[in-house]
Amino acid sequence: MADPDLGVDSDALKKGAKDVIEALRPTEGFGLEEPAGRSSSFGEASASSAFVEFCATWQAGTQILCGRTAGHAAGVVSAKSTLAGTDGDIRDAAGSVKTDQGR
Questions:
Q1: Origin, by domain of life (predicted)?
Q2: Which domains, ranges and CATH numbers included, belong to the chain?
Q3: Residue-wise pLDDT tens digits, 1-18
Q4: pTM summary value
């Protein structure tokens, strides 16, 4: 059953969340510590310092972005389960209603 607000069914939500997680895979193990550690090879202290700062900023940014995105994907999976469960509950409730057709 499609959710009228989202315009998708629960399987589409699950697939979308899986696609988000797959898109994040290249960021697993992303690290700039090693390149930052080699910054002394620039030979200039200010360039080295700027590179270390750049690496630290982008390392933190990547971790934050990945964490938030993974959290949103988990929320979509949860919504998929809730949608499927609610849909089943509604079907069960509708199926249990008895009509009085004899009167």
A1: Bacteria
A2: 8-93 (1.10.287)
A3: 454 565 767 777 778 778
A4: 0.48
What one-character DSSP code corresponds to residue 5?
T
d(CA 44, CA 13): 51
List of residues 6+ apart from 2 with CB closer than 8 A: 8, 9
End-to-end CA distance of the chain: 33
Query: How does DSSP assign 23-55, residue by residue?
Result: HHGGGTT---HHHHHTGGGGS-HHHHHHHHHHH
What is the per-residue pLDDT across 34-63, written as a single tens digit (0 to 9) for each? 777 777 776 777 878 888 888 888 888 888
Tokens representing 99 are 């009509």
The per-residue pLDDT for range 56-103, each reduced to its tens digit, is 888 888 888 888 888 888 887 787 777 777 877 787 788 787 766 655
In this structure, what DSSP letter does residue 8 have? E
